[in-house]
Amino acid sequence: MEYKVEAHRIMSISLGKIYNSRVQRGGIKLHKNLLVSLVLRSARQVYLRDYYGGICLSAQQAREWCEGEYMDSEQDRLVPGSTESLPESDGQSEVAVDKQEPSIVVESHAALDVESEARGEQDHAENGVLDSGCSELKTPESPEASPTCEVSNVVTTISSNCISGPPPSNPKQATETPNDCQTDSESVEENSHEPIVPHTCTNRKRSADDSELTDSLPKRTKVMSPTLISKNDEKKAETEEMDTSNVSSLITIFGSSFSGLLSSEDGAQPDSEAEDSDSGQICCDQMLKNLNPWSTAIVAF
Amino acid sequence: MLKYTFKGVGGGNDFQWCFSQVKGAIDEDVAEADIISTVEFNYSGDLLATGDKGGRVVIFQREQESKNRPHSRGEYNVYSTFQSHEPEFDYLKSLEIEEKINKIRWLPQQNAAHSLLSTNDKTIKLWKISQRDKRAEGYNLKDEDGRLRDPFRITSLRVPVLLPMDRMVEASPRRIFANAHTYHINSISVNSDHETYLSADDLRVNLWHLEITDRSFNIVDIKPANMEELTEVITAAECHPHQCNVFVYSSSKGTIRLCDMRAAALCDRQSKFFEEPEDPSSRSFFSEIISSISDVKFSHSGRYMMTRDYLSVKVWDLNMENRPVETYQVHEYLRSKLCSLYENDCIFDKFECCWNGSDSAIMTGSYNNFFRMFDRNTRRDITLEASRENSKPRAILKARKVSTGGKRKKDEISVDSLDFNKKILHTAWHPKENVIAVAATNNLYIFQDKIN
């Protein structure tokens, strides 16, 4: 949940920067806006993964309550409780997990496998790298910290095939959590019942540090335009669904500006757009107004 | 081969930096136009030029060492001040063009006058700075006031004589190189042939002849056919110090391309491609931003080049493309603060870097008016501060330290106390001596080594 908020915040800030660059003296700075758009893309990808992880969560929970015992036995297999890497059991449990996965979201199981394995490989490499930030992890609710730092890259490559987030229970992540985040094994097992949303540890570190830095860093870019601010407030007060619909609107809008950003995530839209409410649409329009200048600017260049 | 005479940067027994001068207003209220945007010594080091956001250029000249104090180095005093660029308006795009001086580069001196190139976002100008310290008196056709004499009243001829006068320094724009860049110019670099120079903007590099203003050659063009596919921009470019056919340009993706102009008219295909593979463990939202190279500088020898990205300085051997030979962390403690630095725009700050005359040391700036020096031979490094508190004449600069751990030692400053508004982006090192110029917002500090 924290990551979603963080990613969302970064996206809002990025959009604010792009918006403000229009009115800056000296014209739009191509370099800066390119970098901001890269950050925006990364944040959006993480945000979307969180969202789709959330979808898996709600569906998974529903199935769990129906299939209690069956689930437990599966989970036992998935959580060896050790810190070793178990690529073989990964393969097996992946298959088991796939069977349980809600049919709503998943397009391609094969793609999911690839994604998990790719992340698994990365987890190997990155195990134990991120320490201090992760030690702040307390709530059992928080998603497992996959120390994968190539989430956005993975998503980029995978997103063309698959729209959903990670499989609900990734044993690799479950085993690695104690390593990286020093949560106790109990909460690990607890968490393994819930879908695990991978996220970069660095984000958690960042949000922890941010609270420290709030006072000390004097210059804050107060970049929110009135429309953006009202939209953000609105967003925070809204439900998850609303947030997601705004994001999906963003994606649609950005689709016209950055072809690389969008890739094939258009396929993801039907789900979220089905949940679109009216106020989501209004936000979308506001965003549209704000973002058009950027696409105009790009074309002008 | 340059002899290693540099005794050390790390505050060792032999070597220490001390304050020499500071230029600029003391006022706490800094006018935006006074913010220094570029600093550059000329080839001899006798002249030091600064450009500011208001489009002005100020040139300081080193006074001759006085006979009374033969061992004290001369001071830098204002030699010339002129308005190089004015704000302009592009009517076609409805955009204002900032007058901020992005770069100044000196031309090699060919006669009594000095010449430099100064550029803003769109236009490069060649300025000639000449001085007059004599004037002619005793004209035949006009009297001392300048009024024309009545020709019938002239009964004899005389030869005008040259008399000394107060030194007058004039700067005049000799060439204006305009309308060649669609995007914002970030670099200019004079070629070793002393006839040509290159200018680079976000997507293109142009080659000019110093005498010809109405055309330039485009030698690099990375603009994609579809702008929506843009993934990287050019961030800096420089000519090789000795080989007039070689130049490099750096990109926002952290790569450097070396090009040979003999290979093709359009150098889109590089001769060498320098890139260090990214460390996957340090990936974050902001990895791309912090890997963007803000400055690239060849060593004086021409064998190495140095690049500056947000957190580090890297020295590359031109013969090895797959990784740098040296990497120096400038302010690694900022890695965990990247999100906040992104919010307040500090992450976009473009730090420059420079070599000393013998290529044995490098220098770059940081925040809180700190700047860092790295000795390549001893591997020692030092952090110094440019501040008014340390501005007593000949005061030795104390090494500063940022505490990263939990416990803060005495005299250390914690990361959270750093003033991110006080950034040192521009520094310059005298080409021959241990004299450095450090631009701290609107003040220019000059430091030199301690006279033993």
From TrEMBL, chain A:
Residues 82-92, 149-163, 171-185 have a biased composition (Polar residues). It comes from the Eukaryota. PANTHER family: IMMEDIATE EARLY RESPONSE GENE (PTHR15895). The gene is LOC120053713. Belongs to the IER family. Residues 74-100, 115-245, 260-281 are annotated as: Disordered. This is Immediate early response gene 5 protein-like. Residues 115-126 have a biased composition (Basic and acidic residues). It comes from Salvelinus namaycush (Lake trout).
TrEMBL record, chain B:
This is Serine/threonine-protein phosphatase 2A 55 kDa regulatory subunit B. It comes from Salvelinus namaycush (Lake trout). PANTHER family: PROTEIN PHOSPHATASE PP2A REGULATORY SUBUNIT B. GO terms for molecular function: protein phosphatase regulator activity. Belongs to the phosphatase 2A regulatory subunit B family. The lineage of its organism: Eukaryota, Metazoa, Chordata, Craniata, Vertebrata. One of its GO terms (cellular component) is protein phosphatase type 2A complex. It comes from the Eukaryota. PP2A consists of a common heterodimeric core enzyme, composed of a 36 kDa catalytic subunit (subunit C) and a 65 kDa constant regulatory subunit (PR65 or subunit A), that associates with a variety of regulatory subunits. Keywords: Repeat, WD repeat. InterPro entries: PP2A_PR55 (IPR000009), PP2A_PR55_CS (IPR018067), WD40/YVTN_repeat-like_dom_sf (IPR015943), WD40_repeat_dom_sf (IPR036322), WD40_rpt (IPR001680). SUPFAM superfamilies: WD40 repeat-like.
